[in-house]
Specification:
Blueprint (H helix, E strand, L loop, with lengths): L1 H18 L4 H18 L4 H4 L9 H24 L1 H20 L9 H21 L2 H12 L7 H23 L4 H20 L2 H26 L4 H29 L5 H27 L2
Helix pairs in contact: 1-9, 1-10, 2-10, 2-11, 4-5, 4-12, 5-6, 5-12, 6-8, 7-12, 9-10, 11-12
Length: 296
């Protein structure tokens, strides 16, 4: 993945260069297009990932898994409707761990669970707050649209300082205690500098889409293909897309319907992030299971 990381840096800065030519509206359209393509695609093979490879599953077992998966998404959506503040906090917590886990997956087989989980969570949450801190007013507005609660203007900067401090302590402890981790830590700290530049100089949606697609979704697809097929190849990528197609189309149809319902209203961004959260909950659990199964 080191070669891919180098490519990611180049593509990310190319995206920032394009930023200077695009209007904010076009950035939003392009950002959503990237999220709808690779972003949604990377979570569209979840059922295949949890399929028992040792036995051929029959139709009834497959349907049960499909119904359970859809039910979790439906319940997640209900959470946003009835208890939006709790659902939003849960989404941020789950997303933070999910992002961090993808970035620090190498730790799982070598270090204590509390080290792996602490680094993954604080790193992922720090990335989210790093994005939020440069777009505080937009984030506060989206939170209000979802929860109808006005966020104090000092809250996000305060959380950024607290989580930043916890992250520094966690990383510092790991750097001191585990010498074999030092190269990885230094690389990730360098990537944080890259993310800072991206988030600072881009709009909220464009910055999020660059990170979400280039640094999270595509690496996740590569990991999933290795897990499912043993290696990455163009033929395996075609197989991956073919098996994900029906679930990807369902997701796109759902978000397209929401767009046509709410396109003239201010709350579409809030609806979009709520939709993204609903499909993130089961996906994050399945990816954790994949990483754990991969090392057994």
């Amino acid at each position: 993945m080191n070669k891919y990381s180098n490519v990611s840096i180049v593509v990310s800065f190319f995206g920032l260069w394009l930023d200077s030519f695009f209007s904010n509206q076009f950035q939003i359209i392009l950002g959503f297009s990237l999220i709808f393509s690779f972003g949604i695609l990377h979570g569209s093979n979840d059922l295949l990932l949890i399929e028992d490879k040792n036995t051929k599953e029959n139709t009834i077992i497959f349907i049960k898994k499909l119904v359970l998966y859809v039910l979790i998404i439906f319940l997640s959506a209900l959470l946003f409707y009835f208890v939006p503040l709790f659902a939003l906090l849960l989404f941020i917590i789950v997303s933070a761990f999910h992002f961090g886990e993808q970035q620090w997956k190498e730790l799982i087989s070598f270090y204590p669970n509390w080290i792996c989980n602490s680094i993954s969570f604080t790193y992922g949450l720090f990335i989210l707050l790093l994005l939020f801190i440069f777009h505080t007013s937009e984030v506060e507005n989206i939170i209000f649209q979802i929860t109808k609660i006005l966020v104090p203007t000092t809250l996000i900067p305060l959380l950024f300082k607290i989580i930043g401090s916890v992250f520094i302590i966690t990383i510092g402890y790991s750097y001191y205690m585990y010498t074999e981790l030092r190269e990885k830590i230094l690389k990730e700290l360098f990537y944080l500098i890259v993310f800072t530049i991206i988030f600072r100089t881009s709009s909220l949606i464009w910055g999020f889409s660059i990170y979400f697609v280039i640094w999270h979704s595509i690496p996740s697809i590569l990991e999933q293909m290795k897990f499912l097929y043993g290696k990455f190849s163009f033929q395996n990528f075609k197989s991956y897309c073919k098996s994900a197609l029906i679930y990807w189309l369902i997701s796109i149809m759902g978000i397209t319907l929401l767009y046509y319902i709410f396109k003239e209203k201010q709350i579409f961004n809030a609806i979009f992030f709520s939709f993204l959260a609903a499909i993130t909950f089961p996906h994050a659990f399945i990816i954790t299971k994949m990483f754990n199964n991969k090392i057994k």
